[in-house]
Amino acid sequence: MLAGCPGRPAPLIPLPLAPGDRDSAVAWAAATVPAHRTAIRFRWKYQDDQKRWGGRGQARIAPPDSLRFDYVGPLGLGAGAAAVVADSAVWADPEKNFRSLVPAVRMLWAGLGIVRPPAADAAVFGARGAGGAGAAGAAGATGVADSGATLWRFVQGADTLDYRAAVGSARVLEAEWRQGGKVQARSRTLFDVHVMPASARIDFPEARARFELTVVAVDSAATFDPAIWRGRR
Q1: Strand spans (E) along 7-51
Q2: Domains identified in the chain and CATH numbers
Q3: Angle formed at CA 29 by CA 189 and CA 166, multiple of 5 degrees
Q4: Is the pTM of this model over 0.85?
C-alpha cells in the first residue's frame, strides 16, 4: 500500500497453508544468505505523513546472521548506523532514527533478499503457489517452487511472517509481518540476473510510511574491520 493512501492491503497469502516441514523451511531460508561477506551500497527514500527524505547507505552482511546497516541523508545530514545479529539489533546510533526507519528487523533482512529461519518455537506452514500473490493454492507443504511461487508462513505467538518467492521473468521475494492479525509491514524485493537484490520497498500500513532502496553496487568479496560490529565510529 502506498504511504498516505487510505485502506489496508490485501493479505500477501490469503489462503490457509498446510503444516510444513521445518527442516525444509530452514534450508530454504539458508539458501537466501550470501555465501561470502557482501557489501551492498544503495540509495534510499523514506516518507510518511510528516516527512519525506532520502540519501545513501550501505549494508554489510557477514554470513550467516550478522548485518551492519549504515545510512546518511542529503549533504551528509541525518547519518546513523546499526548492528544486527540474527533477529535483534545489538545497537543503533541514533536508536530512535533506526527504529522509525525499520521497526521490524526480519523485514529489513527480507528487504535485502534474505529470509531469517523460523524460531525454534514457531509453527511452520508451506505450500506451492499458483501464480500471483493472493492466488496461491495449497498443493502441498514441501515449499518447493513450481511454475508459480514458493510460500512459507512462520507463526510465533502474536507474530506471523509470510514469505512468497517467485521466479519468472523476474525473481521476486515478498514478505509480510502481521501482529495480532494486523499488517505491520509488507516488503517486495526484486533481484538482478546475478540473484542479488536490485531494489526493495517496505511499506508500513499502520504508520502510513514507506522505505525504498535502490542498489547501486554489490561487493561479494568485501572485507570488514571487526570494529564495525562494536559501534558506529
Answers
A1: 18-19, 38-47
A2: 18-219 (2.50.20)
A3: 45
A4: yes
